[in-house]
Predict the structure.
Amino acid sequence: MHIDLLDPEPFARGDFWETFTWLRANDPVHRHPEPGGEGFWALTKHRDITRVYADTETFSSASGMNLGSHPSAVAAVAQRMLIVSDAPQHTRLKRALHQAVGPQRMPYIEELVEKVVAELAEEALERGEFDFIDIAKQLPNRVVCALLGIPTRDWSWIGELTTDAFESEDEQERSNANSEIFLYFMELLSERRARPGDDLISHIAHDTQVDEGGGEHRPLTDEEIVFNLSGILSGANETTRYSAAGAVHQFARNPDQWRLLQDRGPEGIAPAVEEILRWTTPGIHAMRTATRDTEINGVPIAEGERVTLWNISANRDEDLFTDPHTFRVDRRPNRHIAFGHGRHLCLGAHMARFELAALLRALTGVLDGFETTGPALHNSSNFTWGIKSLPVRLLRSRIA
């Protein structure tokens, strides 16, 4: 079989599943060539991927966390941005940021999510027929922008800029968008240093301390704050947008699953959210670099070699999931790794889960289902992937 995980076209067509099925069965630790490069390892089995995620001493994040990482850009943020840092700095940064988005903030976040979902559900019901991605992208963007205290007038612009920064096919456009985000957050941070409010940026700037050990604490630097605000912005937007759109697509294709979700009532929401996350897996792959000679499943890996972890394949692993290519809202257990695994488990996982749950709660009571009115279109990316257009008609409940 021809294997090319660098080609974005199979992802745009959504026909890459056979490739991962073959790799899991025949070459789960696959040496992948790279034009003009040294190549990389591609892991496709759940057991191998979770092992690498867990072994942060042997497999480093500091040299880049995806295949598209530019060395100079990585070097600029390494050990200062959560996703491209290793222990002990990763541990210190995560603990510090957790002060601002941890359990003590969740009541406020959950109230905010419920408000945004109610507004969006009302908008969707009024429109009746539209491209669902218009709603799906607004949910996380409105929540994270409100959480960060971004002025309402900038919300749409920030959402578009985030998409350009991580999905544009033009490298210069991606670079420019990231630079604009950094500059924007530098300006906001300067304002909140002078005039703090009750938003996340103010809390991080004024109340968050990094534990350096030995009883020593220090504030986060401006660069650490800005880099990680960008990470929060992108992480919050990508997962929920693609998972929400992917869920509606599956419910339109499998109306029995929508009816099952309605029949199961409130207790059916949590397992449905987990199945949506497993099925969509917006973060397709992550990357690590070996810090020493090692092996994975008996295959030698040399120091300095890049190892890619294909989450989307792990979440269809036949050894772990019964009937993995079937969408089942009542699937239990569901040990997916849509948010990664181990120390690098996504900081915003709880918020993403709550957003999806709130959306399901809002729609199950008023809709009999969904009907697609055009083809689902996917973006062409092997990093963050999902539906970018989904024309649908909402089927209003006769009872509601």
Observations:
- The CA atoms of residues 132 and 390 lie 5 Å apart.
